[in-house]
Amino acid sequence: MAADDIYEVYAVRYGHHERMARDNFLGGDAHDGPMPIDYYVWAIVGAKRSFVVDTGFDAQSGGKRKRQMLRAPGEGLRALGVEPERVEDVIITHMHYDHAGNHDLFPRALYHIQDKEMQYCTGRCMGHGQIRGSFEADDVAAMVRRVFAGRVVFHDGAETLAPGLSVHFIGGHTMGLQAVRVQTRRGAVMLASDSAHLYAHLDQARAFPTVYNVADMLEGHRALKRLASSPSHIVPGHDPLVMVRYPPPRPELEGIAVRLDVEPKEGAG
What we know:
It is a single chain. 23% of the residues lie in helices and 25% in strands. It contains eight helices and 13 strands. The strands form two sheets. Strands 1, 2, 3, 4, 5, 6, 7 and 13 form an eight-stranded mixed β-sheet that branches. A five-stranded mixed β-sheet has the order 8-9-10-11-12, covered by helices on one side. It is of the alpha/beta class. It is globular, with a radius of gyration of 17 Å. It starts with 7 loop residues before the first strand and ends in a 10-residue tail after the last strand.
């Protein structure tokens, strides 16, 4: 593989939510106790082309759901040297409020999304309150406006976006959830997003309670393991341990961002 097809990958932590283990597993948890989650966006930086994965929530939608906003996602990206105004490609893993907000942040970008996810968030499933509660109508409307502006690239299944970078349909959590496979200097890293919220979901083969199809969610864990160079190359979408297992790119970014294209810290977490 050419050097230009190898990427640096970063997780940017922008939010936090204190919650119990029972809230993180379908059917609850027999050993209930504190089990918080973090909120991330991701930056994939290449020699020729860079991508942002997901756009996070804003203060209004996060506050409505009592989520703690640590910093605006754009602020975290800028700290890495990724200027939102210059980003040309944004991958939306799915349209939940914490992955598809801040819709004015990337004015130049093309947005990459699965066909099935647009079908899901604009179709009959949104007639059910329990399902649409994880979406913001304004975020969905903004994506529809991008379609009409020619700024959305639709994908159907697994597709290569650039040498060394591809999206993979997973489903499960939502109808059209996709994960991202990135070639790095340590091998193929899978940005799972909500294909696996926590390391525990992968380790215990258990489902998160917000789910479109349980079987697809659990099969998605297997797909992640097939696509990654090893289980340690899978990065879950909401686990605070990501910030423990990987190093910050610079000391001043401790607690803000970590670098995922390097080996995890030995013995961490």
